[in-house]
Write a structure and sequence with these properties.
- InterPro entries: P-loop_NTPase.
- This is Chromosomal replication initiator protein DnaA domain-containing protein.
- By secondary structure, the chain is of the alpha/beta class.
- It has two domains: 101 residues, Helicase, Ruva Protein, domain 3, CATH 1.10.8.60; 120 residues, Rossmann fold (3-Layer(aba) Sandwich).
- Helices cover 43% and strands 12% of the residues.
- The protein is built from nine helices and seven strands.
- The protein has a five-stranded parallel beta sheet, with helices on both faces. It has a two-stranded antiparallel sheet with strand order 1-2.
- Strand 4, helix 3 and strand 5 form a beta-alpha-beta unit.
- Helix 6 packs across helix 7.
- It is elongated.
- The two termini are 31 Å apart.
Length: 248
């Protein structure tokens, strides 16, 4: 059961605001949505352990599926998941098992330790999967040795290529939340939204919260309001006087 509190909002109307509860997205292999923009990356993960190179790099924007593919790799290979807190100990242990290093461009990993792991992989001692948002040239690396070794790894990009992939992402996110949404509403969203995987996640979350607050299913009105609220957030404006019913 979803806990709710009642609080006054604009126009002196009462609405129910849901307290936040986490939902768990599925990272199962069968739930990964394969499309034109991620097929090569998906194929690379599926080809493990028969990789021609020991190090693989996945590059893509937030919510593009990097973490999903990384978890598929970890499940398939029983890889150890490296964190900024554990990388030094793992590097010093000089092991041989597969490793996963996520967000390598953002989390401030110890570079000598990362250099050591890359060397272990390139000597054929272990498999290493790296994920990042940006191209290597934009990584805040201080040492050229790390950069040069990462550049040797084949990089696989994840991108959203068409409306079908965006629609599939909406369907998966709503499915993770156990919400049924009319395909016409998803089509309405895809035709009007900012085109990125991250925006799919933001809109799905916003619509879920609006629907819970009002005790209704996700409707076209709620989809229109979510789109307008997201546009206002990007513009730094306010939606105080916006009436979602006017879009019906």
């Amino acid at each position: 059961m979803v806990a709710r509190v009642v609080t006054p909002l604009r126009n002196d109307r009462l609405r129910q605001l849901p307290l936040e509860f986490e939902h768990t997205p599925s990272h199962a292999a069968d739930d990964f949505l394969v499309g034109e923009g991620n097929a090569l990356a998906h194929g690379r993960i599926g080809a493990w352990p028969h990789w021609p190179d020991a190090v693989t790099l996945l590059i893509g924007p937030p919510a593009s599926g990097k973490s999903h593919l990384a978890r598929i790799f970890a499940d398939r290979s029983h890889a150890v998941i490296v964190t900024p807190e554990t990388i030094t100990a793992i590097a010093e242990a000089d092991g041989r098992g597969p490793l996963l290093v996520e967000d390598v461009d953002r989390l401030g990993y110890d570079e000598p330790s990362l250099f050591h792991l890359l060397n272990q992989a390139m000597r054929g001692n272990r498999t290493l999967l790296l994920t990042a948002r940006d191209d290597i040239a934009k990584w805040p690396l201080r040492t050229d040795d790390v950069r040069s070794r990462v550049r040797r790894a084949p990089a696989f990009r994840l991108e959203v290529s068409d409306d079908i992939e965006l629609s599939q992402m909406f369907a998966k996110l709503f499915g993770d939340r156990q919400i049924k949404v009319d395909p016409k509403i998803i089509h309405y969203l895809v035709a009007r939204m900012e085109r990125s995987p991250e925006e799919v996640g933001e809109l799905a979350d916003r619509m879920d919260r609006l629907a819970l607050a009002r005790g209704t299913a996700i409707t076209r009105t709620i989809a229109a309001e979510a789109l307008a609220l997201r546009e206002a957030e990007r513009d730094g404006g306010s939606q105080q006087d916006w009436d979602p019913l006017s879009d019906e």
